Structures are given as structure tokens and as C-alpha cells.
Amino acid sequence: MVSNPVPALARRLAQRRWVMRSAPVVLRVERLIRRASGGRKGVLDLAGLPSVEVTVPGRKTGIPRTTSLLYVPHGADFVVLGSNWGGPKHPAWSANLRAAQTASVRHKGEQFPATVREITGVERKRVWDLAVEFWPGYAMEYELSGGRVFRIFELRRVSD
């Protein structure tokens, strides 16, 4: 069995500052790939990385907002971090997620409801360490952000 070298390459590239500066280009490519694949694939999928599409109502407008995100596997749950590519401000999706109790999650073609929980306090350090181990680029993004504390969320599938 041949293993896919792309995820390892993506992890190495994600630790380069110039990659974080390419966010606008990557986000445009993401939209194009999502549109061309009918929402089934995105940049992270093509790179062999775990991704989810999260939809929550906008906290001000109530209009559903969908964002493709890298996730950190956490048992059966999904952990997402508001790194915003190392930018100084929190991403808008994280404020919307913070205001929501549930979200719609699309993972590997399956769509399902999930509860949203922001991870804080003592648990946050443990989950942060797990996230950095999984995706080392988060440590560099933290530095680029000027030390902004990234919002961390757990998305847990709602059982039937």
C-alpha cells in the first residue's frame, strides 16, 4: 500500500510564514474547488487533510454562514481552532460559532447536526497541545497573531 505524501508536505508547508500570507489565494481556490465539486471537495481534502464544513447562522444577521475548516480529530468529535491564518483578529466564523449552541456539519459527504462547545479553562491547554501536535503550524500562527488566544471549539455529533 502506497501512503499519500501530500499530508506530510502540507504540514511542513503550514509552518512557513509565506504560506500564511497566501490565505486570500487559498480561500479563492477553496471556493472554486467547492463549487466545481458540488461542495464535496475542498483544498484540505485535496491535500489529504481532515476537513469539515461548518454552517451556523450569522450572529447579527441570522443568515447561514458556511466555512471549510481543518479539524483536529478528538475521538468521535471535531476540534476546530480560530487561528485565522495567524491574523491579529479572531475569524468571523468563530464569533458566529461562539454565539451558536448547534451547527450543521458536513464531513465526507455526510451532513449532520452537532453541538458546539467552546473549550476554555484547564481543558484548553490540553486541547491546545493536542492541536499543535496534530498541526504544528498552529504554533507559528500563534506567533504571527501577536499572541492572540485562539478560540477552540468542540463539535460533537448529535445522536439520533
From TrEMBL:
<dbReference type="InterPro" id="IPR012349">
    <property type="entry name" value="Split_barrel_FMN-bd"/>
</dbReference>
<dbReference type="GO" id="GO:0016491">
    <property type="term" value="F:oxidoreductase activity"/>
</dbReference>
<comment type="similarity">
    <text>Belongs to the F420H(2)-dependent quinone reductase family.</text>
</comment>
<dbReference type="GO" id="GO:0070967">
    <property type="term" value="F:coenzyme F420 binding"/>
</dbReference>
<dbReference type="GO" id="GO:0005886">
    <property type="term" value="C:plasma membrane"/>
</dbReference>
<dbReference type="Pfam" id="PF04075">
    <property type="entry name" value="F420H2_quin_red"/>
</dbReference>
<protein>
    <submittedName>
        <fullName>Nitroreductase family deazaflavin-dependent oxidoreductase</fullName>
    </submittedName>
</protein>
<dbReference type="InterPro" id="IPR004378">
    <property type="entry name" value="F420H2_quin_Rdtase"/>
</dbReference>
